[in-house]
What does this fold into?
Amino acid sequence: MRPPKLLAVVSSVDLDYRYGCTPAWWQLWKGIYEAGADLIVTPYRGRAIESPWWRAEPNPTYREGELFAAGRDALARVRGDTHLRRVEEAPRDSLADRAVREVITRYVTPRWQRHLERILEREGDVDAVIVFTVPPSHLRGIPAALRERFGVPVVFYDADVPMSLPEYGGMDTGFNIYHGADIGEYDLVLSNSEGGLERLLELGARRAEALFWGADPELLQPLPVEKEHDVLFYGYGDKFRRDWLAAMLAEPSERLREASFAVAGGDFKGELGRARELGWVPVNRLAAVVSAARINLNIGRRPHATVPASSTSRLFELASAGAAIVSNPYAGIERWFEPGEELLVVRSADEAVATYRELLADPAAAQELGRRARERVLEEHTYADRARRLLELVGARVPAHV
It folds into this structure.
């Protein structure tokens, strides 16, 4: 029995773009390799990058993508910002959005179709094509064409539900991906969110299944480093979570004057109190930065925190690194970790202050909380687990180990 072969069309492979999903994709793709599959990766943004775990195919519209990104960044600077912002509630499909899609449909989509057809012709035995969060509106028509010509199933994996849904519009760094899309073209739509599956079916998905984020426990593990901060939050931006950053970071930092607070990442527009800003953390330093904090915060954005079981990578990364996790209220968090045993949940600034005091006064209790969280990851939430589940969902069987 030959190993399954997958063709992955991915948002990006290059970590320099600082897309939050890219480090997680690397871990998942490594898990797919370790499961015995042959993986081919072709990026929609940036250059192709080879690795020990996948083969790479080029980006056929690299120059066009970079020119578009440069133009968008220039317009944002003219407006005095780093990004072109969308409102947080029901962002409209603007005239500019529709014009961009028209250009993409005319010039980008046909080139991607020819590119994927050439790969499938050459390989001859690809078992499935998986689209990793590339806007389906930009690939409209391609899944049906590939299925008709090659008989290959085409899967769309949206790992940012519900943020990506039209009513929220996604991150300001990307597109509102469902405007102009037809996800009914895909044989299967995968989602990081159980609670978002019904909405994906409403948007036209023929079949929708949940595939949660996870962690690679070899990459993210507790490290023997000195403690530098009492309370740490790392993440990208405060869109949809400014209120909880205030309640769990800014206000407690002013009230607990004896404790040190830090925030890693960027694009924070609201108040951070006394928290020290660490800037962007390279992927290879994340475990060390997490390990250097006595308490690590999971502050989910409002869409993820309110739509049940909408996973994000941070929660699993912190747990894998053995962090003592304190989270804002998060619907369905018990789907992955047991509150009170493997992490703690606070519902106000007062509860946050009291919880921080207790954990800082009892380092052994904090360490035990992190130990139990990591054990849960090892049992249920590794990317090896997620990779096997992915292969099962797309119908790609791997040879049994002898």
In short: Residues 85 and 172 are 5 Å apart (CA to CA). The mean pLDDT is 91. Residues 95-123 form the longest helix (29 residues).
